Predict the structure.
Amino acid sequence: MKHIIAPSILSADFANLQRDIEMINNSDADWFHVDVMDGVFVPNISFGFPVLKAVKKYAKKPLDVHLMIVNPEKYIQEFANEGADIITVHYEACLHLHRTIQMIKAAGCKASVALNPHTAVGLLKDILADLDMVLIMSVNPGFGGQQFIPQSLNKIAELRKMANEINPNLIIEVDGGVSISNTASLIKAGANAFVAGNAIFSASNQTQMIADMKNIDVSLQEI
Ligand SMILES: O=C(CO)[C@H](O)[C@H](O)COP(=O)(O)O
């Protein structure tokens, strides 16, 4: 299966959100990545249900909702009701992660767990079989436009190795500092879904940038 490109609407122009949603609809992108931040789990506040609902109204592709919030279990059903297709909760925010994953599935969504840069992938071993996706944060969450943390490549490779034994269909998504210049090395490490905010929305031709990231020829790229 070809890798997935998920533009992060955190970097969109909120005064022209419908225009940016249509750009994604008409591009080679696969998903919309929607970052929800509460100002507690991360030092930033983004948006919540009303914006998700507005995006859902126009989006013609699945909504990949990344909850950077404490106590995410309180809001799973409402995010599902407002249109989330994939829900990612943070390992660091869940005291009862297994229960929260079951809640996401019961709400009819794909279930995913995100790991902050300091969190070891081995901690997911006993729950990996229950997951549709793991999101490796390759920056400290909270802001777009940060620099990719190189150690993330080792984490992806380690996770892919573990997934090959436990859950071969696991999607490994990378989020933070992803661009056309590191997509190939991330694919080689074992990732197959890419969130990109700044790299797409600051490009002079956004649709072309999405196409370039989607159609990158890994065999021609150096690590
Ligand atoms: O989760 C996020 C921030 O916490 C964003 O999705 C991520 O930072 C994408 O932005 P960029 O591609 O510009 O790094």
